[in-house]
Amino acid sequence: MIKYISKIAVLLILVVFTACEDSFLSPDPTGAITSESFFSDDSELEAGLINMYDGIQGINSTDTDDNHGVMYEFYVTEMRSDNTRTKGSEGEDAQFDTFTVEATNGRLADYYASCYNVIYRANLVLDKLDAASEGARGAFEGEAKFVRAYTYFNLVRLFGDVPLVDKEISVSDGEISYTRVATATIYDLIESDLQTAIANLDNSYKGRASKAAAQALLAKVYLTQGENYVLAQGLCEDVMSSGYSLEGNFKDIFYNELNNEIIFAIEYIGDVVDDSQNFSSEWLNSVGRTSGVNYVTADVREALDAMGGNRTMYSYRQDATQTEQYQVVKYLPNGDESLGILPTSSDPTKAGNDWIVLRYADVLLMHVEAIMAGASETSNSAAISSFMEVRDRAGITDNVTTITKVDLLNERRVEFAFENQRFFDLVRLGMAEEVLSAFSTETGGSFSSTDLLLPIPQREINLSNGLLTQNPGY
Amino acid sequence: MKNNILNLKLNQSSVWKMLILVLAVSFTACDFEYDLPDADSKADGTPPSALFTYAQGQGSAEEWKDYTFSNLSNSATDYVWDFGDGNTSTEKDGKNTYAGEGSFTVTLTSSDKLGVTSSYSETIEIIEPEEPLAIVPVILEASFEDLSLPDGNGDGRDSWRNDFGGVIQITNDPVQDGSQAAKFPSAGDRVAYQDGIAVTPNTDYILTYYYTMKEGTPGSLTVKVLGGTITDLSEADAAKLGEYVGTDISDSSTYVKVSIPFNTGVNETVAIMVTNEDVECRVDTFEIEVAPEN
Q1: In total, how many domains does chain A have?
Q2: Would you give the DSSP letter of residue B190?
Q3: Does B290 touch chain A if contact means CB atoms closer than 8 Å?
Q4: Do A376 and B55 touch (CB under 8 A)?
Q5: Residue A42 has pLDDT above 70, yes or no
């Protein structure tokens, strides 16, 4: 036997060496799907589009390693405003209440990673557009670019300068992943993406991108930058003549899903693990994983009581088990009999309430803001008519002759309370420092102007080998 | 028993000697002076860097004098603001109300607990904002006079030519002002159209003009103000901001004044279009002025 060993060895070596052809060490997988080989026709590209919305939906889990997408957006937006706070002021969630967010905060890292994951999914489709049929390519491009613009718009407003990824990248592209690009350059991409979306899309969907959604978002992009007010006004007027209308009853906006007021919503399906959401249960008393977050502040209750009209009862309610605390009504997973609201799922942690991104009332109030054009007030009749339309639905019918910027901000606050608009509204209308520093002083927080931008997550900075810089104040 | 052992040990002279030695060493050790590092012997690894941005207050009253300063300093713990008008502050974010217009150099000095400082200055020019004035629109050949274009040329109707209908005629009598007016024969196949008239969006304006008609024959003269530019007559109604249909056939030699109020809405330019039906008409002296505040 021993004499054969050398021969066997030689044979083995030969086999090993001859086997070293490309396809042996990296064969094309036949039992699995890769992004390289997957996108070959329209239906597969459409699956790629749905995959983007799946990324925005996030994963319904309590695992801190998962991306929770828009489910965790309230932490970085509404909880940093004067509208909501944690119930028990405990843990890293309370950092948002007191303007003491640290770069190591897990919710922060989750939201940041979710955003770039969605951008990756959009870029994946955009890089494979050649596989689309002639007739479908334009709409696919528009839809992917809408989602990319929507995501960058959130990133740039929350973090300031951020890395700009506009194509599929790999681990070796560290320089792209970790080089912060000026806000103005990010806005250039957002605007051009939305213009493509407007040109290529129609208004077939509410749970996916549409022309009206892109127009409304672009209007908000212009207003946020404080420029192109006339273009923003025109975009709003285009949406206003596209067949959308205010839902008659304020409650139905949230509990009659995909109603005529909805322009763009992230859809969820109750009790389906992969398509349900858990933020609704987190906003209740120990129904979700937390003891209760996004609880209603006294500050916003005062505003809603004074200015909410018939919106107030469908905006917040008393916590039945801790009566000094108040909860959000707009997205209840398990219903409320006294308000005539039915559960959206049998398991509240697998809720079916959609997340509304853009609705018609937002367009009407953006129309007012565009006409105001950075001034402190307007008495323009078109602006007043849009403003009154929103108030009429709320049952507030007194005649308005002049709208000041503060009127507009207050109206937006009570109309969109707990819809993740408040923080952005304060910043966009130039009132954030004044309002939030007063609120923070009153509630024992430590607001300073650098809190208007979130820190870049420490995990990203650590991975970047010194490329990624931190925002001031962190 | 314990005491006995202790006594036994203490009585041993070698122990005493050792004890004395230890004491001596420990006392002399106290005379050692370990030099603390001198100040600045090690560089401040993260020196402060001062930076700020600022914003002017907004509002219709005196808010323009209020400035808020956002502190963007890094690695600093203490701050001194000098607002350039004698006011100072040691808050993190600065806030100052200036007495009035002027040029002020604002300096932020940021320091850390090692006493390392960094300064950043910026000069702000404070000017009371003026009420933005609405554009006063200019209508070319508004009275249909020869050689009245800005370059001194024109036949009185060059600015009104278009593809929507035949070119208008020019009449010398009667006129409202100057020596010429526009004439629309009764066939109604002529159209006057001028676009690109610059206006301020969302502003109330009033278009005025004068017209007269041949006596006796019923008919109409329609003047429309359109938002933006149209490329086909069918777009006119959708773009319409204001309109007047004149039907006064009482006296062909007396011009009637018409005012059409309109709001420009989202438009940065407007167009004027004139058409007639069934009766010979004359039109003169177009003008657009900003509507007075009500």
Answers
A1: 1
A2: B
A3: no
A4: no
A5: yes
